[in-house]
């Protein structure tokens, strides 16, 4: 018989559901999400299932990582469909806390990440973002106390910030990165892709194309600055406003050292119409 997928909405019922698993020595995986689930999220779930006995998926559109000008209120909320997908994927528990459960009256403590969080990139354009992410992910990891937690490489800087957070706060959870799932034409799956009009969706493919082209040029020995300038020009021709299109050290996210050709990661964020997309790619090494 297929096992049941349960939904809990409070820390108390979460703990009650998880305790027997932990007591039986079962390995628990957490996949944090904001819902509006797509195949990219389900790939994270699949990876979690391979590595653990029990999989918990959290769904929480976290208000503290959105600036007042951003899309918190219009962010897609599709709980019914999400639940069905997670049930079909064999998830044990869906943790969908309310905002009051996560941030009760009097809530007054935040985790303030440094390191990768201060590397510019997303932080330069969304200065509120990593503080909100670190605080909510810290809470989720302490609430679920999973053995592993899976995050997507699509949000590469976020993956670095979360890995550092778990190490710095001595959390017993191993953070695992999962490769980016893409559409057939290369566009990274993202919940925000639903905002794109048909015309914008057709032009959005310029983002992965510009990254692939720049990565190939750098691997072939072209100066990094020229490859990046060509990438930005490609985006501009497709009608994107580029926030950043940069090459960084893949581990630390520090700017590249002079002549650095190994451990290079390209990271980009660009706006097409009202939609902001991010993506990144490793530069292949010879
Ligand atoms: N295409 C993808 N491939 C791999 N992981 C992904 C992909 N899209 C999202 N994820 C990961 O899923 C987790 C939850 O992300 P989230 O719910 O914000 O979805 P999203 O599609 O990134 O949404 P958004 O459009 O808000 O950025 C994060 O760890 C994120 O990196
Ligand atoms: C990690 C996360 C679930 C925290 O709200 C969110 O930033 C996301 O979905 O990537
Ligand atoms: N996928 C990261 C969450 C956000 O952009 O708000």
Automatic annotation (TrEMBL):
Compartment(s) of residence: Cytoplasm
Protein name: Pantothenate synthetase
Binding sites annotated in the UniProt record for ATP: 34-41, 152-155, 189-192
First-level EC class: ligase
Coiled coil segments of this chain: none
Residues annotated as catalytic: 41 (proton donor)
Enzyme Commission no: 6.3.2.1
Function: Catalyzes the condensation of pantoate with beta-alanine in an ATP-dependent reaction via a pantoyl-adenylate intermediate.
Main location: cytoplasm
GO cellular component, one term: cytosol
Reactions catalysed according to its record: (R)-pantoate + beta-alanine + ATP = (R)-pantothenate + AMP + diphosphate + H(+)
This protein's pathway: Cofactor biosynthesis; (R)-pantothenate biosynthesis; (R)-pantothenate from (R)-pantoate and beta-alanine: step 1/1
Keywords, alphabetical: ATP-binding, Cytoplasm, Ligase, Nucleotide-binding, Pantothenate biosynthesis
Subunit structure, interactors included: Homodimer.
Pfam families noted in UniProt: Pantoate_ligase (PF02569)
GO biological process, one term: pantothenate biosynthetic process
InterPro entries reported for this sequence: Cyt_trans-like, Pantoate_ligase, Pantoate_ligase_C, Rossmann-like_a/b/a_fold
Sites where the protein binds beta-alanine: 65
GO molecular function, one term: pantoate-beta-alanine ligase activity
Binding, (R)-pantoate: 65, 158
Domain of life: Bacteria
UniProt miscellaneous comment: The reaction proceeds by a bi uni uni bi ping pong mechanism.
Family: Belongs to the pantothenate synthetase family.
């Amino acid at each position: 018989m297929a096992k049941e997928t349960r939904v809990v909405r409070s820390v108390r019922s979460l703990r009650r559901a998880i305790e027997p698993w932990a007591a039986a020595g079962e390995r628990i995986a957490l996949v944090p999400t904001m819902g509006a689930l797509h195949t990219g999220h389900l790939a994270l779930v699949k990876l979690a299932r391979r590595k653990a006995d029990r999989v918990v998926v959290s769904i929480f559109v976290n208000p503290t990582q959105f600036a007042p000008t951003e899309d918190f209120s219009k962010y897609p909320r599709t709980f019914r469909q999400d639940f069905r997908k997670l049930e079909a994927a064999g998830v044990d528990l869906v943790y969908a806390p309310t905002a009051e459960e996560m941030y009760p009256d009097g809530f007054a403590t935040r985790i303030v990440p440094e390191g990768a969080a201060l590397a510019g990139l997303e932080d330069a354009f969304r200065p509120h973002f990593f503080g909100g992410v670190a605080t909510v992910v810290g809470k989720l990891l302490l609430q679920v106390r999973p053995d592993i937690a899976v995050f997507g490489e699509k949000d590469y800087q976020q993956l670095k910030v979360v890995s550092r957070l778990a190490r710095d706060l001595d959390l017993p959870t191993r953070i695992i990165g999962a490769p980016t799932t893409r559409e057939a034409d290369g566009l990274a799956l993202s919940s925000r892709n639903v905002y794109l009009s048909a015309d914008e969706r057709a032009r959005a493919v310029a983002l992965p194309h510009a990254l692939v082209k720049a990565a190939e040029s750098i691997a072939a020995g072209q100066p990094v600055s020229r490859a990046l300038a060509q990438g930005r020009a490609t985006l501009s021709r497709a009608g994107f406003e580029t926030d950043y299109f940069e090459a960084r050290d893949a581990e630390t996210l520090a700017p590249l050292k002079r002549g650095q050709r190994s451990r290079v990661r390209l990271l980009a964020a660009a706006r097409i119409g009202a939609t902001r997309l991010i993506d990144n790619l490793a530069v292949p090494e010879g």
